[in-house]
Amino acid sequence: MIHRSILFATLILPLAACGSKPTVNEKNASVEEVSQKVSEATKAEGFIRPGKWQSTVNIEQMTMPGMPPQAAEQMKKMMAQTQTTETCLTPEEAKQPRAKFFGGNDQCRYDHFKMGHGKIDAEMHCTQNGSTQVMEMNGTYSGEAYTMQMTSTMEGGQSAANVSMKIKVDAKRVGECTAKES
Length: 182
Prior knowledge:
Layout: H1 2-12, E1 24-30, H2 31-42, E2 51-63, H3 69-80, E3 83-89, H4 91-95, E4 108-116, E5 119-128, E6 131-141, E7 145-156, E8 163-175
Antiparallel strand pairs: 1-4, 2-3, 2-8, 4-5, 5-6, 6-7, 7-8
């Protein structure tokens, strides 16, 4: 689930780049319901600007109580690495997002998902294989860029480890997609 948080950051956040006029304010909603509401709210303007988006993910902090010293050192090295990805969004994907675009799965629910006026605020709970993960996201967006702070905590599961992370994502639209990327 740790990697899902990072994947979630790089997939959900390009959707926040839509115009600031449409708003979405959902509570106790599934990933599918949020996807549908965002699509409905942004239909007139288009979901987001299609094209190539570049996201930079920085894991600012990760804690795992009881982690062996060697593993903790490896985590610190991993956290020091910035992960940059590029995503090509077609016009079709920009107008009608699939639910998986918003991260999570059918075992996840948003306590709240607020998007509008250049801001996004969301909290999601996921349960899977005896573990519970809570993700909180806060940030700002425009049609060309966004910045998002995320926190993720996970408890229980097969390893019975408690993990918490703070992640920052910065992204920007860097141009059009090439024919090869589309």
